[in-house]
Description:
- With 1533 residues, this protein is α/β, with parallel strands linked by helices.
- Helix content is 30%, strand content 21%.
- The strands form 15 sheets. Strands 5-4-15-14-16-17-18-19-22 form a nine-stranded mixed sheet, sandwiched between helices.
- Helix 4 packs across helix 24 (819-837) and helix 14 crosses helix 15 (512-524).
- The radius of gyration is 41 Å and the shape is elongated.
- The two termini are 49 Å apart.
- The relative contact order is 0.09.
Amino acid sequence: xxxxxxxxxxxxLPAEVLESLAELELELSExxxxxxxxxxxxxxxxARYIPLIQDVHxxxxxxxxxxxxxxxxxxxxxxxxxxxxxxxxxxxxxxxxSASEDEGSLRRPGRLTSTxxxxxxSIEPWLDRVIQGSSTSSSASSTSSHPGGxxxxxxxxxxxxxxxxxxxxxxxxxxxxxxxxxxxxHAHCERPQVACVRGIPRGxxxxxxxxxxxxxxxxxxxxxxxxxxxxxxxxxxxxLKEFFVDDFEExxxxxxxxxxxxxxxxxxxxxxxxxxxxxxxxxxxxLLAALQLWATxxxxxxxxxxxxxxxxATCTLxxxxxxxxxxxxxxxxxxxxxxxxxxxxxxxxxxxLVFPNSDPVMFMVAFYxxxxxxxxxxxxxxxxxxxxxxxxxxxxxLGSCGVTLxxxxxxxxxxxxxxxxxxxxxxxxxxxxxxxxxxxxxxTKPPKDWYPLxxxxxxxxxxxEYKTSKEGSTVGVTVSHSSLLAQCQALTQACGYMEAExxxxxxxxxxxAGLWHGVLTSVMNRMHVISIPYALMKVNPLSWIxxxxxxxxxxxxxxxxxxxxxxxxxxxxxxxCLSSLRMLIVADGANPWSISSCDAxxxxxxxxxxxxxxxxxxxxxxEALTVAIRRPPDLGGPPPRKAVLSMxxxxxxxxxxxxxxxxxxxxxQDVGQVMPGASACVVKVDGxxxxxxxxxxxxxxxxSVATGTAYYGLLGITKNVFETVxxxxxxxxxxxxxxxRTGLLGxxxxxxxxxxVGKLDGLMVVGVxxxxxxxxxxxxxxxxxxxxxxxxxxxxxxxxxLHDERIVLVAEQRPDASEEDSFQWMSRVLxxxxxxxxxxxxxxxxxxxxxxxxxxxxxxxxxxxxxxxxEGTLHPCNVLMCPHTCVTNLPKPRQKQPEVGPASMIVGNxxxxxxxxxxSGRELAHLEDSDQARKFLFxxxxxxxxxxxxxxxxxxxxxxxxxxxxxTATCIQLHKxxxxxxxxxxxxGRLDAGDHVALVYPPGVDLIAAFYxxxxxxxxxxxxxxxxxxxxxxxxxxxKMIVEVSxxxxxxxxxxxxxxxxSKEAAAAVDVRTWPTILDTDDIPKKKVASIFRxxxxxxxxxxxxxxxxxxxxxxxxxxxxxTSALCRSIKLQCELYPSRQxxxxxxxxCGLGFALWCLCSVYSGHQSVLVPPLxxxxxxxxxxxxxSQYKARVTFCSYSVMEMCTKGLGAQTGALRMKGVNLSCxxxxxxxxxxxxxxxxxxxxSKLFKDLGLPARAVSTTFGCRVNVAICLxxxxxxxxxxxxxxxxxxxxVYVDMRALRHDxxxxxxxxxxxxxxxxxxxxxxxxxxxxxxxxxxxxxxxDSHLGEIWVSSPHNATGYYTVYGExxxxxxxxxxxxxxxxxxxxxxxxxxxxxLRRTELTDASGERHDALxxxxxxxxxxxxxxxxxxxxxIETSVIRAHRSIAECAVFTxxxxxxxxxxxxxxxxxxxxxxxxVTNVVLEEHYLVVGVVxxxxxxxxxINSRGEKQRMHLRDxxxxxxxxxxxxxxxx
Length: 1533
């Protein structure tokens, strides 16, 4: 073996070199030198001495990163204010934690194993016997990475971007100023009001923004998306086996086991027995007997010395003092505490011990006092605030243990949070407690003859130690008196403790090794413990070494972080000497990073008297207490060993030496032998406890008298953990005594040494492979340890998304880290983990320094961090999601089958007994005499007839915001005003019949009069929404465009608007010189027209209806006189409108059904319309409902935006409205006018809210219309038995459909509440004369009623075609005169462009026919084709809005096959990044889609039109043109 050691046995470094190295380290840690400078100088110093030594793990990470040099990743965009937010944190005080128990709070130095170890093959290839039994094989090294180990910094994102844009020929100069990165000053102060861009067709009047066909636009955003697509082009994982996907069931991919994965090949292991426990007869029979013995024979012997933060001894407790004080406390507890004259405590009761880490003396007194009084101490941490992380679970533990009394010190009690009464506050989730201060003056001296009857032997519980599980729940592990005694005896034997030895203890003395060695075993052996508080370690990391030196301590109890910190503070190391130490017990020796701390510590301190064999790592767990400990050779320990294991093998639970990849290895050290008197074995992690093979990783189980006995009060899991019976492969139990599961994962190596590779709590099972959280933390830290992560604080945990665990890494970044640094660090961490562990990280989040929840001793509280992540309260300052690489179990994309022909489909439907999906309203012919229909053919004639027969009958009332009537119109008044307008048009405007006239009016009677004026002189009216005076820039171009596209020869308007159209402000937005003639109708002379125009035939054009679709397309449709009167007739019959009726309308009067109800229906049917302009609701929300109540309207119409305003604005005011006399019991139907799927949750909450004001439960219903036919369905029609009772029909039928089937264009009804169910509400009763059929979108064949297809409509009031500038005939033919490709090929249909289905319901209508319900699912243009399936944006948006309470609104669209989700944040900007992960999670879980880009914007950015519909395409254009001023844009990789 000698040949093996030669290159490693370099002479120890000379003292002066070590000193210079130490100074360098300090300069770096204090920031006096750059990393580069540090590495240069360090390399120089070490060049002569160390040819080969490196930190293997750091080296592996750097090598892995070097492979990825070229990958460019788009950097997230952040608004400047958010950047400012993150730098506000720079003034955070240095780590304010109370302590740092968890190793999360230390930079994990990589593993310092030499590369040589791996290349050398020996008999046990994965183990290495260390030369001459030293605890390390590298004789000198330092914790930093080796010279030249850092790869050159990856090119910054900006240069990456520049390179990329050059590549893609995207001209950045023509882009607007980039408001996303916060690097360019904003060019204009006001935010571009995207919300109001209504009506600009795509590609009109902009730098041509060709968005639809995937051509990049000129903007920074599109180049970032291009980068993102480039990262996605390289497939990360080999494609999984694909299998047949049933049409309905989208099966998630099940990861198939890899045929080449390593499998264990060794023999079955045997149970390993430790040496027998030799209990000397001289030993005391119990711990209390030992204490009494020392108190009487050696009362002056020191037992415990406590230090203050300056390192001075504040108090030394002698054995005599400990005994007398404990007796005093026991007497007080048993005799002086009463409640209702009964003793408060009886033997066996549990008592909480609440002591700070700086007061070991009082803790020890309290602990032994409880034992003497036969009470069970439950040590817990001092609660710092009312809502500490995990405090609720501690409360649960105290409650379940029945704790009613807490012992504490005077100082500690003063520091606890207080209630206003001065009592200690009740902590969240805690039971009511009495607090007893146990300082001497509060205790009573017992009588001379008093002595407690303590029975401290046997199976009774001695104390309870708390343990926090992975999920955050806290349980109590009970330790019996016999276990406690056995533990002390076993530790005494294993560590060779002798009487009067000195032990320095840096650990928490309340639990774990700190308690077992420093409070219990020490008393057994009359040792002297020097307790070093964590606060002192923070001030002076060398304090423990100085104390070892000054007290000549024989043993020291530390964690690897204490060794690591002492290396960083080497200035004071010169005069220390560690030669007195015979055992340096490393309590967390089982952790993956402890080995490098041990090695580095030995390298530095070997020259100061530290002997290699002194370092003794040990492994322990709350359930099994000490599991194993390395013994020095003089105590019979074999030489120490190391294992260099393949990470890939480990992830499959198999031990393999790494042969090909030298990078992904884990180096672990042994933790010595099993404890005396114990047996150990390794069992499989999952399922029954079968013994593992010798080369297999499993959970270590221990059988010994010295383990815990149960989880207090939890019988079920106790049996599972404390009473496991390991069995052989044949199912034979290996022992008749039960074993305790330790929660440690590992294996037994040669010489019967125990090796631990991780904890069960940190295990994450991704796919079929297992990864350890600690290993991933170590890799992340090796990327750029000191430079970026604040105090090494990193948390790694897994969350379950889409039926698999996903890895999340959260790190605290240093306050001075720049945006660029953090992003670069994140992308390199991802690459390192991917390369070394072959696993993708799902989410990487950075939080400001000091903001992660702390465990009691300063480490990171993992379960609380996970909870915050899932609740969206982590508040990161940077997030990087990588769902594309991690989520490999998505269902297979749907392959479109070569379409079955429509004819075979019909045959198939007939065979299956499904009917063709078609339905119709009542026949018009039966409903009225054709005479009246002929008379009412032209609306102009109807108005003249009404003016003649009922001149003073009121038709219109217009209300203002105060609810007062501002204008009215009777039949004769309207007729006369229309005549005046007609005269003006003919004389002033010199217009001819057939000319088009734009009516630009606010909602009101003027608009109606102007409309009929146009009909009177034969002109064609076009209603146009007036521009918004505060927002001319975005609203005026739309007006101008409609005027131009409709070829209007004249514009009619009011005086105010006329002025606005010609103003200087208008000139900035449009060319005002090109307006046609503008006539102001406010003061036109009273004139009659010579003759009123009568159209030659009913098919002549009556008016043009222009509107902007939700996809941003401006479309005008032609309505003939015949269609107009047919529309009015159908609505009259459906809504039973007569001259005696009053209806209230709160809609915009510019297009669609809103226009028809506002301008046409009253004149046709003669009823009175109360007009409420929706704009007025902004200043008085209750205006509409008050008007309905005041005028006792039986029928009222509104839009979704009005309903939403009422629901949000009046939620808390229903009581006040009732006081004002608002009563809605008059309403029979309240119809929501919309061109979309009914918003079921909004209508339900509206009904529920206003039920208190008398609104009938069934009143609210929906309507459906579209461009080709503005009114297809209106609800109010009496059905079945209810017709006699005169109520407005039953509830609109609601069905629940399977959302997954819907994606495949299938309709499958499911029960309410079943998974993936989507509630859909019927869109209303089909109007008289209207026929509807469901047709296939591509083959145009009729469909059965279990299919989703396009709704086609045939009716006398269909529009006659699009009015387009270039007269696109193909579009017209397709939309307005479609024929089925099979079946009834004669009927001419219009295609609505909406997807839906028909269902025959159980209800019957008045004629006894079964009622057919039409369900609208969504607009065909808006659907997203992703993964071969059809998604409706609203479904994804509904899921997203549910994801977090601060998401106010959401819109989704696709861009080059990426799903983009825009969310409006209703909350603080610094909470914006919480939403990124939640949005990604919910869309994955519920829709099986990976979100490509998450954009977080301010409320109001998502444009919504007057009908309350989202303008997703405008939003998309705004996003791509960089106009949204987003708070944050996350590009999910």
